[in-house]
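ugh ok fine here u go
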Amino acid sequence: MPQRELRDVKEDGRSSAGASVRSAPRRVPRWLRVLLPALLILVWLTGTAVGGPYFGKVSEVSSNDQTTYLPESADATAVQELLGEFNDSESIPAVVVLTSDTELSASQVTTIEDAVAQLPEIDGVRDELSPAIPSEDGLAVQAFVPIDSEAELGAVVGEISETLRSDLPELEVFVTGPAGFTADLAAGFAGIDGILLAVSLAAVFIILIVVYRSLLLPIAVLATSVFALTVALLSVWWLAYADILLLSGQTQGILFILVIGAATDYSLLYVARYREALRVHQDRWTATWQGLRGSFEPILASGGTVIAGLLCLLLSDLKSNSTLGPVASIGILFAMASALTFLPALLFVFGRAAFWPRRPRFEPEVVAAEGGVPNRGIWARTGRFVTRAPRRIWIATTLLLFVGALGLTQLDAQGVPQSELVLGESEARDGQVALGEHFPGGSGSPAYVVTQQDSLQSAADVLLGNPGVDGVTVVTEDDAGSAPVTEDGISGYGPPGTPAPEPTVVEDSIMLQATLTDPADSSAAQDTVRELRADYASADSEVLMGGVTATAIDTNDAAISDRNLIIPIVLLVILLILMVLLRSVLAPVLLVLTTVLSFATALGVSSLVFDYVFDFPGADPTVPLYGFVFLVALGIDYNIFLMTRVREESLSHGTRRGVIRGLTVTGGVITSAGIVLAATFAALSVIPILFLAQIAFIVAFGVLLDTFLVRALLVPALVRDIGPAVWWPSKLARTPEPRASVAQD
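structure:
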């Protein structure tokens, strides 16, 4: 034990033999030592009691509608805002597809029409139904069913499907289109409040049992995480209710996992420091303050770094990204607060009993003999391994990481079809396939074109001249709601000579609807819309294009732009924070470079796994961005845990011995924290959403890679090899290594 710590023990009244002494510093009144922990515990219990019921109310303030999160500057956003004015309705269209193995008779078609006509009796289905439309091959019928946007979409879609199956048992029934896919997403996210939370908490609890070999301590740490999540959710719910934040199932799932993982990590760090303090302090109050003194700075620095990285998402054009930043930051804030207030108060109450049956002993002599660092165990052996050949170790691990990063050449993150967003069975996806077999692929999800009234025909001619467009209609004021547009102008529905209806005009603009030959969420449909936009741009036409396909294009383009902008900014922000924290320039640069290399390796390996193991259809452009923000910000957490302790040890023992001592002391904490965080993110895979499954694998694998390779071998070996110069340009870089350290080298 350092002389300063021995002196502190003696000043507390403890002899080297460990005799009983004063229980706490005289300046702290006994009543305060009782009142303060009790008050902290009561505050958190109250917050949890109030916030608990909000777990079942998140759907009231969240939305999974993709158009809600579009950037304000996107054409698809402007068209979406105008859509209600042209249609005089805020409904979400469902496409009902009914198929048969044999050609449908006229009487069967009539029966289908009657069944579809009864659908408005279902709560949430609007009256503006389209007539049932038979396919050219006579094997299918489709109908467009508008659903009130305020209705419970999943329930309404399910009732439509059940009703038609009951009325038409001889036919296959599918409900697809925008309403069908949105209902699929809602069903996929339905398990967030229950299954995701249960799986993640169970995984963390099992890991903590293994780590601590205790029952009470894991419960205390788990309670710290749950209390932080509950109060964070309460805050986020009211901010979403006040329309200050946007909340989606995706954001909610990430919030749950991030808070549980981060709060547990911070708790592990505090528990480790508290346990160290109990070995040299008999008094619980003194040990609590010593534990807080040792963990306060790294926890605040780690949480602050994560928050800074997350808040960089505010620069995103996509609201799904920009709103995640503050939502997740609120979660991290409460994770830090819970780990630094509730957990210390709870452990103060229980004292050594919290660690039962492996209670830490009051043994200052043993600690002094160890020099403050255990000389046995896996991390002591790892430290000796790094000491023997640091240069060979960091070169070998760097090359290994580079090999894994080569998998980035296989990364396909240009977006995936809407029909592939949900994993497993999907009626909407099956309906999309059936629709494509019997009707133009884009039926039910047209591309919308808004142009000036006097440009109606020229805008329609561009659409009609593209082979990817099957037909064009214009929104009209008559009961039909739309009328076909040909090269000769607007046609009327009905017998020849029927006068053409007047188009609906909104602020001197009209809206055309183009049915695409390919499914609206396919890459072929996106190519068609991009070609049309280019044609309109070359003709200098004032045209806005929207719809499902244009929304996907604008979302993907914005996501790629965000990725290219935010990633460098996150790196710069984290680099500056590390420079301030470590009082160095070189060490932060090296730490950021190792973290980036670790991320590249995680993403490269994940790309190969996605392609050749899971056979995923690709990835959303935001997947690399989210993976980067979580892995880099959380990876820096472990850098901070390690390097703050290394710097602390280097001040007394020199850098080369300090890094080995820091590794030995923090290795167990970092490994436990990494396993916990990997397990919590892996729990996201229980939600059958492609995006979350990919984020789960990338972050879980990346955290384990960072924990067992980068933080255990690469960084310590690099610092050991460079020596004091790693702290350049601080004074510590010019401080001679102690003789013992030089001799050990």
